[in-house]
Amino acid sequence: MKENIINRAISVLDANFQEGGFTIPSKGLYPFQWKWDSGFIAVGLAHYNTDHAKKEIETLLNAQWDNGFIPHIVFHTDDDSYFPGHDFHRSDLHPLSSKQYKSTGMTQPPVTGFILQDMLNIVDDKEDMLNFIKGQIDKVYDNHVYFYENRDPQNEGLVYIYHNWESGTDNSPVWDDIWDTMNPPEYTFERKDTTHVDASERPSKREYDHYLYIIDIAKQNNYDDTKIAELSPFLVQDPLFNAMLIKSNQALIELYGMIGGNDDKIAYLRKNQEKSIASFNKKLWNTELGAYVHYDLRNEKPIRHISSSSFSPLFAAIPSKERAEVLVHTMMERFGGDDKYLCASFDPTDDRFDPRKYWRGPVWINMNWMLYRGLKDYGYQEIAERVKNDSIELIERDGFFEYFDCRKDTGKETRKGYGGDNFSWSAALIIDLLKD
Ligand code: 2M8
């Protein structure tokens, strides 16, 4: 069984690998290179094709801007089957954007640092991988410097995101609180996603109006970070995004330690790491809910809803042992019923929960992969195993879908897999889970 899933997963990844040296998330729906997808994909590739794993990271980092920014989509080709494409995003408006690659002007969770460390842990030829890392690590470091110097206006060690697409959890009900503060114009545009996937599984037209409006504001200001911090109606400190930064800081500190001779960079990362972890625990922890929550920096208030992002700090060693216990208790109480697969992407006890719609409730394999490791690190072996086995069961049942209905009993609807099929990070991370 195990070998069979791994072989099928490899076929998915191989079919999605492109001539340009990168992997698309899913044929039809997502025809370019996405930042955090690339990281997860490289972990899977490292298990069986080191050259492709290295290429994946290299092609992403090649598109870095001169200010250290790494965009969320790199448009390697002129494919017009995705909206909004490069002609809407117009990365060329920023004076320091890549002259060689078209991209968006927004980013995604900074996973690349810890991915490099994972790749090193996975491969047999450590020397070869460490040499590769030596050639790439400064780009990832520059990306972290970009975040701390440009995305932290109150100098707290917590960086903001200015768009829901930067979070990776696109239509999470958490953002509904922000949409309530906005009234964007009605845009006329042609959706492409709903030609590949049923509209009921994707964000609504009105949600897209909000998404496009925030980009328009950023474009009117040539993607200038200071202006965005001043003007964007969406300005959020996201626990998932910041946990990824913290996890990657730690990986960079350890990798630089192995490489040697980078004391100034290690010192910079350590200083920020300490500050980030302290602020994270102080500002993003919500005692009443017993969980980490998002903070709306534009309107200066916490967003009191629990999502799977609330548990991601476990993966980055952020909570104390005591706090982790509270967090895991909250998770099991709200998300962990016997009638559900772990782990729903949004609180099943919340009115906004939808078990089948994208980031509003379904299970996502990348979140489960992080949760599995976080739970294991804190000694919750049994729950970790459940997260792993649930992930395997869902994929074995239905295939390598983008997301899965989190309910065990779905009545007449026997299908659990939704969104894009043959989805790359589901394939890549199941390989890693099965090899663990
Ligand atoms: C989804 O997001 C893109 C926009 O970035 C979309 O809906 O068009 C998200 O699930 C995101 O996290 C993911 O990186 C991307 C590609 O898989 O798809």
UniProtKB/TrEMBL annotation:
Gene3D superfamilies documented for this protein: 1.50.10.10
SUPFAM superfamilies (alphabetical): Six-hairpin glycosidases
GO biological process annotation, one example: protein N-linked glycosylation
InterPro entries cross-referenced by the UniProt entry: 6-hairpin_glycosidase_sf, 6hp_glycosidase-like_sf, Glycoside_hydrolase_63, MGH1-like_GH
Pfam families: MGH1-like_GH
Record domain Mannosylglycerate hydrolase MGH1-like glycoside hydrolase: where: 30-426
Keyword Glycoprotein: no
Superkingdom to which the source organism belongs: Bacteria
Signal peptide boundaries: none
Keyword Hydrolase: yes
Molecular function GO terms recorded: Glc3Man9GlcNAc2 oligosaccharide glucosidase activity
Alphabetical keyword list: Glycosidase, Hydrolase
Entry similarity comment: Belongs to the glycosyl hydrolase 63 family.
Name of the protein: Glycoside hydrolase
Annotated organism of origin: Zobellia amurskyensis
